[in-house]
Design goal:
- Helices cover 59% and strands 17% of the residues.
- By secondary structure, the protein is an alpha/beta fold.
- The protein has a domain of 154 residues.
- The strands form 3 sheets. Strands 2-1-4-5-6-7 form a 6-stranded antiparallel sheet.
- The protein is elongated.
- 29% of the residues are buried.
Length: 543
């Protein structure tokens, strides 16, 4: 149940605070007084998107605070989501919007998102407006309402049908793709066979191209390499003037004085180590020099192998790894083509199974919907009597699903969109809302001028039904009908004021029989003269 709405700088409302009755809270006012702006603020608090123009001109931000009493289920969810409350504490949603178009929202003082508030908003209030009456012209909306009335069983069955339909669609697409382009499939198969044969014949190894390229560079430069190695070997290990001989002399000289001090011993050890390293390097260079033989046949073989590898790399991705991956992919194409018959049979079997499951799920959903439709028809018939539609008939047609309606006796049932007037649509919508309210968790029902096109005795009947509905749960109405406003437990009047070139809207609660009668008289005749006042008092006494 919603308990309080505080508004600051929203639209034309500079500031307002509204306390809601557990029964019926009614908003009235002159045409253009901004009655629906109250519901816009409530909608905003419940997470609906809004543009920067909701911020009152000349101010920086709009703030709407909604206070509500969560039921046990919602209280438990708030706790699980980190928005816990103390026992008996009311919950709050505070939504702000800046003139720059930014918005923020807090639930119970903690940051939240608009999408989260929209989720929990379905457990707080349901807003029914004139657009919902227009939606009754759409058979798709009829299916939605029927499944909502069918409850969790219908919704679960509908989800099962959707899932089964998707499985059948996937199997159909795969089978169609398999049979779709035989010529292209044959071409891909031939291309794959050629690629596998080419790659397997070459049998490339990862890193092979790099090793061969290095060996080719060596053979291309073998004369330079031999000359450099020979010069280095002579410098290190040649005649008496070589590096190893010179280091040997130095090592021997230092060895003779090494026992005098630690510094001299370190020098001696260093000279000996350098001589040893020079000798090892000279030996390695000598071995490399012995191996510097140029083999034209080897170079020719390397060039031929690299040509093969480069051709494969250009065709299949630029690297040996890509070539090997292309081979694996080509083999999978060959395997898929070779197993087309088996795959066709498997997909055909999967499609038959999916279609059988879909048929079973659709039959189950239809049975659930037919049972729900029978109950809905009976419940709506009972509501019609209370809404001045006693002679009207309502039913649900199948194939396709659509609400059908006849306003008078003797008339055939026809699609609701083709035969219902605006006032009849509003009353059918009200009947559906009332019936659906009894089939789900109780939330506040908020009506935004759904009484358009209604007047006279019909308006009296609709008002009385709203009044009885308010005895069962919380109802909020924006209305232009005195017959409906009569049933208020709390009554607010919205008034437009112009001052210094600026327009504002105020929200004023009225109480007491005379004040209420004066507002009802204004709604009945446009002014509070004696006849209108007496009529208004009669309406209040007739409640």
């Amino acid at each position: 149940m919603i308990t309080r709405l505080e508004i600051e700088n929203y639209g034309l409302i500079a500031r307002g605070a509204i306390e809601f009755s557990p029964g019926a809270t009614i908003f009235t006012g002159e045409t253009g007084s901004g009655k629906t702006m109250i519901l816009g603020a409530l909608d905003f608090a419940l997470g609906e998107r809004a543009s920067a123009d909701i911020v009152r001109r000349g101010t920086k931000r709009a703030v709407v605070t909604l206070t509500f009493e969560p039921d046990a289920a919602l209280r438990e969810r708030l706790l699980a989501d980190g928005y816990e409350l103390d026992p008996g504490e009311d919950a709050t949603i505070v939504r702000e919007a800046s003139d720059a178009g930014k918005s923020s929202v807090r639930v119970n003082g903690r940051a939240a998102t608009a999408s989260y508030v929209r989720e929990i908003g379905a457990q707080i209030a349901e807003i029914v407006g004139q657009h919902d009456a227009q939606r009754l012209l759409s058979p798709a909306y009829h299916v939605e309402l029927l499944d909502r009335y069918g409850g969790p069983k219908a919704l679960a069955a509908r989800d099962a049908v959707d899932a089964a339909r998707e499985r059948a669609a996937i199997a159909t697409r795969e089978l169609s793709a398999l049979h779709g382009d035989e010529r292209r499939a044959q071409e891909r198969y031939e291309d794959a066979r050629f690629a596998v044969e080419e790659i397997d014949t070459a049998a490339p190894q990862i890193g092979e191209d790099e090793r061969l390229s290095e060996r080719r560079r060596y053979l291309d430069n073998v004369e330079r390499i031999a000359l450099a190695l020979r010069s280095a070997h002579e410098a290190l290990g040649g005649d008496d003037g070589s590096a190893t001989a010179t280091l040997g002399v130095a090592s021997a000289a230092l060895h003779g004085i090494a026992d005098i001090s630690s510094d001299l011993r370190a020098m001696s050890d260093g000279a000996a180590a350098l001589q040893s390293e020079a000798t090892d390097l000279a030996t390695a260079i000598a071995r490399a020099l012995d191996a510097t033989e140029f083999d034209p046949a080897e170079l020719e073989a390397i060039n031929a192998r690299l040509d093969i590898l480069e051709r494969l790399k250009r065709k299949h991705g630029g690297t040996i790894e890509a070539v090997l991956a292309a081979g694996a992919q080509a083999r999978s194409v060959i395997e898929a083509f070779d197993s087309r018959d088996e795959r066709t049979a498997a997909l055909a079997a999967a499609l038959r199974e999916a279609e059988a499951a879909l048929a079973a799920d659709e039959a189950r959903l239809r049975a659930i919907r037919e049972e729900a439709a029978a109950r809905l028809k009976s419940a709506i018939a009972k509501e019609f009597g209370a809404l001045a539609l006693g002679s009207a008939r309502f039913d649900v047609a199948f194939d396709p699903i659509e609400f059908v309606f006849a306003a008078n006796k003797g008339e055939p049932l026809r699609p609701l969109a083709r035969v219902a007037s605006g006032g009849e649509l509003a009353r059918v919508l009200l009947a559906l809302v009332v019936v659906l309210a009894g089939a789900r968790e109780r939330t506040a029902l908020i009506f935004d001028e759904i009484d358009t096109g209604i007047g006279g005795t019909t308006a009296t009947a609709v008002g009385a039904r709203i009044g009885r509905l308010a005895q069962e749960g919380q109802v909020v109405c924006v209305t232009h009908l005195a017959q409906l406003a009569t049933w208020s437990d709390r009554h607010y009047v919205l008034e437009k004021h112009e001052k210094s070139g600026a327009t504002t809207i105020s929200v004023r609660e009225i109480s007491g029989e005379e004040a209420r009668a004066a507002e009802l008289a204004r709604m009945l005749s446009g002014e509070s003269h004696d006849v209108a006042l007496e009529h208004a008092r009669m309406l209040l006494r007739a409640r």
